[in-house]
Amino acid sequence: MGKAEDFARLRPLLFSIAYRILGSVGEAEDAVQEAWLRYEASTTQPASTKSFLCAVVTRISIDVLRSARMRREEYVGPWFPEPLLADPYEDPARAAELADSVSTAALLLLERLSPLERAVFVLREVFDFGFPEVASAVGRSEDACRQLAVRARRHMNAGRPRFEADRRARDELAHRFFQALREGDVLGLQQLLAADVSMVGDGGGKAPQLARAIRGADKVARLLGTVFPALAGIGLTTEPHDINGQPGAIVRDWDGKVVQTLALDVLDGRIQSIRLVLNPQKLGHVGPVADPWEVSRVFRESRRAQP
What we know:
Elements: H1 3-22, H2 25-41, H3 49-73, H4 95-101, H5 104-110, H6 115-126, H7 131-138, H8 142-159, H9 167-183, H10 186-192, E1 193-202, E2 214-215, H11 217-233, E3 237-240, E4 248-252, E5 258-267, E6 270-277, H12 292-305
């Protein structure tokens, strides 16, 4: 098997590692491409192509994350990872675990770790790499990696997100939620939301966004039940789609361009949080992106025109 075939076989795994370290689809794709260039240029065949490529993409991702952390500290408003529509790495035996590890909530928790801790946690806890492989990938001793793993696990366990274990029940709840959303059924929405539900938007200063988090079933239901039918009135559509392994949707404008994504965290038969990604710079991989300011202008004008 040639280099190109080897790389193509491992590409889903490489992307999945890079995305969990970086929280960015574009940066993860760039890291994978850089790993390919380094592999293609190498003159020796590694003993294990998988170990070599995973180590390369991990080190690239750590370097990128270190430079990205300062940008995130200066980010306008809440920062969310770029929405992932589908994880290319599949392992049927661990599908639920892998989906939870790529959830928005889990990725936000990973943001609390140092780049090295994050990389070690992803390789060891998510992808079950042995410590010799982890040590080789991050350029540290096995003992140092064990210590990094302990610290990372402690941080993650302290705030580890929980999700509805029954996928069918979770998806049924999401179906009812989007049906109530389309109908503007405020009471129906209230019954599906946890009492302390929160709704937060990431616009990054590049799109109109919520001035602050909206909390409480009554406030969130009233806002959603008012705004989404009005958005439908100007031609926007809400297309249910898994976002980061959890129920969600893509909102498109009258030309089918992406306005935002919406992701739900579901637990104990209720929606616990709703996260909106509105920053157009984070949506390009989903499809052609709408002008959020134009959508906002048309929406405001339609509201003013109502009797």
